[in-house]
Amino acid sequence: MRIWSRVWEIRTGQDSQAMKETERPHERHAIAADLIAVLVAVTNGQPSVLTIQQASALPSGPFELSHRSLQSGLRDWVEQQTGHPLGYIEQLYTFADRDRTGGERTQRVISISYLGLTREDQADSSKKSGWRSWYDYFPWEDHRAGPPSILSEVLAPRLRLWADEADDMETRRDRWQRASIAFGLDDRGWNEEFVLQRYELLFEAALVEEALRGRKSSNAQLIAGRSMIADHRRILATGIARLRTKIKYRPVVFELMPPVFTLLQLQRAVEALAGLLVHKQNFRRLIEQQDLVEETGETTSDTGGRPAKLFRFRHAVLAEQTVAGTKLPLSRA
Amino acid sequence: MRIWSRVWEIRTGQDSQAMKETERPHERHAIAADLIAVLVAVTNGQPSVLTIQQASALPSGPFELSHRSLQSGLRDWVEQQTGHPLGYIEQLYTFADRDRTGGERTQRVISISYLGLTREDQADSSKKSGWRSWYDYFPWEDHRAGPPSILSEVLAPRLRLWADEADDMETRRDRWQRASIAFGLDDRGWNEEFVLQRYELLFEAALVEEALRGRKSSNAQLIAGRSMIADHRRILATGIARLRTKIKYRPVVFELMPPVFTLLQLQRAVEALAGLLVHKQNFRRLIEQQDLVEETGETTSDTGGRPAKLFRFRHAVLAEQTVAGTKLPLSRA
DNA sequence: CCCTATTATGCTCGAAGTGAGTATAAGATA
DNA sequence: TATCTTATACTCACTTCGAGCATAATAGGG
After folding, report:
1. Taking the C1' atom of C6, which residue's CA lies nearest?
2. What does the alpha-carbon distance between residue B235 and residue B227 come to, in Å, rounded to a whole number?
3. How many interface pairs between A and B have CB atoms less than 8 angstroms apart?
4. Sheet of strand A308-313: strand arrangement
5. CB contact under 8 A, A32 and B31
6. Using one digit for the tens of pLDDT, what is the confidence trace for B156-174?
7. Alpha carbon of B19 to those of A126, A147, B6, B301: distances in Å?
8. B24: pLDDT strictly greater than 50
9. I want to staple B261 with a disulfide (CB 3.0 to 4.6 A). Which of A239, A260, B265, B275 is the partner?
10. Which amino acid residue lies closest to nucleotide D24, measuring CA to C1'?
11. Closest CA to A27 of B34, B100, B59, B32
12. Could you check: is the Cβ of residue B280 within 7 Å of any atom of nucleic acid strand C?
């Protein structure tokens, strides 16, 4: 940290002599940068994520000088793979913890992760890579058929044990409070957005495989979903959380839909992402009053009952959208 | 891009032979990483940002191997400077465009920016660095006294010119549409969250100094606020936008407040950040119904009229907060 | 001491938004 | 044709939210 404070003083102009010294880029430690993609599609009502290495890792690769920018690098790359323009990319988070890779290397790797959305049909075309339901990794996150049994039968009791095994009272209370908030226990409601908090809590409580890696003791109590290499599962959790938040205030779901769809299909996609069921009639009202879609004039009777009107996304809204999510009591004066 | 596609195939397990090759970290191009801080305080009803180099740059410094993580590195560093724990840090964005630094260097610099919030009184103590109203850099962003004159008198006409100077009709329409949305022209409402879009639009229209740097022609039409080195002003815009969004759904304003405050002081802080006035009575209602504060029992008459009750932030809410901002028609079944 | 300016605080009202449910329509299929 | 299934329209109670009115409690000037 000594270095830092020197740099600070330098940068604040206290010592412009020394500045030139540290400004020489070659004296900095070499750092490598990786790009990691959380690529999402919705296939058969399941939210899928693109994986590699037998579904144990997210696609990732080094960031090279040849790339114009982080985003364009990722974009070019993904487009080559899927053979179509990627509709939506968004930066997720940058990680750089020293022991990220788990190895003994002293070289530092910075991982810049992105969230990408793609269409179901286009997703199918790339057979090289494996699409996998993200609930394979987070089985406790799917509440579409009610709270999953793993929650009450496994996770809740284990978390209780973990809380109780703390030495002091305060820690016990703190642990249980965090757990009950994150998982909606003790009659607190389930909040589908807390994906990352939940995963990190399970990690802290050593209830996911990733948490046991350093240790020798085969504490083999591990449970809770398929794991991934390094911290890829955490990155996936970050992506899911971001997406679950975002579908509520930006029309991003449409990036996952085919050009033409019924309102129920749209609803199913939202439900797949949120891991929750929504009220059908109110969902329609919400979509229509925002002018997000327009009728194509066609209908489909593939749905079983009464034929459903087909809709397409009104791309114009993206231009109109002054979607201000105001929660402040603003003054119009 | 050829490299990328190879890497992809390798990573997807198509060619594990080649994998070992590219996995050697030393073969990667050296990349340097910088940390950049947008440190915000509210001083005298003005939202201030910590700057260096005669207010022309944000504090920044290299990320070193000695740092445990990005966040802890930044935190340690800031704490050393301000002499107190930093209440709130949040990662903003990671930039890596090739010509970020504007130089001819081939070395790539990745900049990881953070948003930090600190208290007014504590901010004052660090005299080394300069606090500066962020409206010095974005004069068009302060609408507390109504729409600033620069908007209608300078920016709107200039943006109109810029739109009209496009060759084809479609571009003209597109430019003006984007401008009018971003700046709330043509009776579209002003949206205080569009800070970054506005700055980037001005950049694109070459109405900020930063946009003219590459060019020799002293197109000296430049206007619109104090500039900063490199892309620091863009990073600042990113930070402001993030903060303006966040104060609406997370109680982060309190990080900027002294331990005890009146509701009007709190309101003024929010207004300073949002650049907008809020309805006083409704603001109180909003704060109180969320149980964000509790009375200290004391009052102060420093305010001019009737003495105001003093409040403190209820830290307990941070634990309780199941603040789900649901916009989905959820089913309770 | 009263009047006035100033800020604080309480309360009401109407419009819009939202959760939940009822009712009806339009196909497929037995 | 009866029944099942999904689609779609409409209602209703309740909450939220923008806006404004009214009252309270000080300071300061005449």
Report:
1. B305
2. 12
3. 240
4. A260-261, A308-313, A293-300
5. yes
6. 999 999 999 999 999 999 9
7. 21, 42, 9, 71
8. no
9. B265
10. B306
11. B32
12. yes
Please report which helix (H) or strand (E) contains residue B121, including its range. Answer: helix B120-125
Can you give the pLDDT at residue A108?
A: 78
pLDDT at B156: 95
User: Which of chain B's residues 206-235 bind strand C, using a 7 Å CB cutoff?
Assistant: none
CB contact under 8 A, B322 and A181: yes
Q: How far is CA B267 from CA A55, B136, B250, B280, in A?
A: 50, 22, 15, 8
Q: Could you say which of A33, A54, A282 has the minimum Cβ distance to residue B31?
A: A33
pLDDT at residue B242 in the model: 96
d(CA A80, CA B6): 11
User: Is the distance from CB of A39 to CB of A132 less than 8 angstroms?
Assistant: no
Q: Which nucleotides of C are covered by protein (CB under 7 A)?
A: 5-12, 17-22, 25-28
Q: Which two tokens stand for residue A183?
A: 């998982």
B181 CA vs C14 C1’ separation (Å): 30
Q: Which amino acid is at B328?
A: L
Task: Kindly determine whether the C-beta of residue A288 is less than 7 Å away from any atom of nucleic acid strand C.
Answer: no
Cβ-contact A239, A92 below 8 angstroms: yes
User: What is the spatial distance, in angstroms and rounded to an integer, between the CA atom of B271 and the C1' atom of C4?
Assistant: 29
| A62–B286 CB contact, under 8 Å | no
Closest among A50, A27, A23, A55 to A39, alpha carbons compared:
A50
pLDDT of res. B55: 86
Selected residue with higher pLDDT from A240 and B10: A240
| Contact state of B52 with A13 under an 8 Å Cβ cutoff | yes
Q: How far is CA B6 from the centre of its chain?
A: 37
Q: Tens of pLDDT along A281-312?
A: 999 999 998 889 999 998 888 777 888 899 99
With a cut of 50, say whether residue B98 has pLDDT above it: yes
Kindly determine whether residue A327 and residue B249, on different chains, have CB atoms separated by under 8 Å.
Answer: yes
Q: Are A176 and A160 in contact (CB under 8 A)?
A: yes
Hey, what domains does chain A have and what are their CATH numbers?
A: 27-133 (3.90.79.10), 138-225 (no CATH), 259-320 (1.10.10.10)
Q: What are phi and psi of B141, to 5 degrees?
A: -90, -10
| Inter-chain CB proximity B5 and A60 less than 8 Å | no
Say if the Cβ atoms of B193 and A324 lie within 8 Å. Answer: yes
Determine the Cα–Cα distance for residues A231 and B69; give it in Å rounded to an integer: 14
Q: Is the CB of B278 under 7 A from strand C?
A: no
**Dist CA A164 CA B220 (whole Å):** 69
Please tell me whether residue B325 adopts helix, strand or coil conformation: coil
B326 touches strand C (CB under 7 A): yes
Nearest residue, CA→C1' of D20: B281
Contacts of B333 in chain A (CB under 8 A): 277
Tell which wins on pLDDT, B74 or B143. B143
- In this structure, the number of other CB atoms found within 10 A of the CB of residue B144 comes to 16
Question: Which tokens in the block code for residue A195?
Answer: 């994906």
Torsional sign, CA A252, A257, A262, A266: negative
Per-residue pLDDT tens for A93-116? 999 865 544 444 556 788 999 999
Q: Give the lowest-confidence range in A201-215, B13-27, B214-228, B265-279.
A: B13-27
At B127, is the pLDDT very low, low, confident or very high (cuts 50, 70, 90)? Answer: low
Q: Grade residue B329 by pLDDT with cuts at 50, 70 and 90.
A: confident
- What is the least distance, in Å, from the CA of A278 to any CA of chain B? 4
